[in-house]
Fold these 2 entries.
Entry 1:
Amino acid sequence: MNMRFNRELFSPQELKRMYGASAEAAERKAENDKEIRSVLDGSSDKLLLVIGPCSADREDSVIDYISRLRPLQEKVEDKIVIVPRIYTNKPRTTGAGYKGMLHQPDPIADPDLFKGLVSIRKLHLRALEETGFSCADEMLYPENHQFLSDLLSYVAVGARSVEDQQHRLVASGLDIPVGMKNPTGGDLSVMMNSINAAQHGHSFIYRNWDVSSKGNPYAHAILRGYVDSHGTSHPNYHYEDLRRLSDLYAAGGYANPAVIVDCNHSNSGKQYLEQGRIAKEVLHSARECATVRGLVKGLMIESYIEDGAQKSGEHRYGCSITDPCLGWEKTERLVLELAEAL
């Protein structure tokens, strides 16, 4: 094999023993889980808002950002359920570049997966213990989910992973909502097949165990736009796109039909300042059509403390080192405007 085995890592159980959640934190996560599920199954008419940095790059600024969300959540709690993004893994289209805190707990240092696992556990634990938010992360590596399984309330399967069988099988065994993004090429049948697979039970190998899953009725769609064969971005958040998705759900007999619209990525053409306009258009479409209103359960927005993005060596506190994000002032104003529009 063309690999060097650097060191054997601890198990998820060992890491959880080292950095365990308190009983109070576990109870708070259970309450968050219940509220998020109630939005997706339609028993609550609130809007989910999955919001935060493109990638979690450093603990201090991420906790600072999430702490700012707490008083904002209290202002809009009758309309919006905020689920902060703490994305500790960063998929790379070409394989090059910063791969997230799991790989590099210090973005300008060499990769260190041992320290990375500890860092991502501590970050999610601090968020829960200090702010009461149990957050969202991307399930880039399905076998790593157990390191955070008692802290997360939402998981996204990315556009590059949604066709992967292991992602689908593991999603079928989770007891929290899993959002399946449409693939980068835009074929919605791939996303719908992934949702279908995740909503059914399976037998498979997971972390050297023969396991069986019951299926996850809260697996759902995330529309993030797509890129054509010429490299041009195309959105899929418009009224017609949402009606088409509703038809696909109706034809397949899925549990809890739902969509969260990703307001960045190819939907915005990575023009991050367009996210507010896109979010408001989605809400307008929902007001115009009961079918769309019943389908749209939330929005996904990339936001941080400072506007834009930077290179990893620039050391601008609270500014993304991956995709550009809305800064805090614009974020706060947008969330209040969304609440007012609901």
Entry 2:
Amino acid sequence: MTKVIAFANNKGGSGKTTTCSNVGCAMALLGKTVLLIDGDMQLNLTISYFDEEQAHAFAESGKNLFTAIREERSLSGFLTHTPFEGLDMVPSTSLMSGIEFELFSKWQRETVLRKCLKEVKERGDYDYILIDAPPTLGVWVMNILCASDFVIVPVEASPWGLFGLANMFEFIEKAREISPQTEILGIAVTKADERKKYFKQTLETLKSLEGTRLFGQYVRVDSAVEWSQDQSRPVVAFKKTSRSAVEYMNLTKEILEYVDR
């Protein structure tokens, strides 16, 4: 059965999109079939796989997430192949900036995405569907959470990284009132610098959270990530031997272990 995983954090700069992009690619490299959904108006997940010219072409053609949600159509008609085998995407567009307005007048507006995903999920062509959520807490993110089986919360290992985390968890609990199957899979620590004292403090704080899993593999700061982004490629494919690529691959294996239990 296809499993849907959202990557969400209401704080920007948490490494959310980079984690979603690399976990999705790592899953494909491990032989899984994966669909990525770019739910953010910034298009960062889309340009993790396509150059800007291609990203703008998706927006102009209407073959993007915004069109599907506005017209409440199945996402099966909005799938785009990435350069990687077994890895497809529903690209985003800057028009997603108006998605809250589009959802406001819709019937059962918190579950529009779930309905648009229904056919794709039930068809079972993908082992996993990964959704990159924007760093906000509104009706659209509520849609993403309600459409998901699991939520992964990437957290930057910095003094500001924990800011707003309690609000994120409270919002997920509100989503569970509508969609009880939605489960927090765990917290993934990103942008870690083991030389900094606050890194250990961040880990200790996260470990102390009751009832919330902290993934054992964290991802350290690595310039290879920035170089891969410049080339519109996930680092796990761009430079497989880099530290961050190895860490993202290990994190992906850990995620699969928990999801497949």
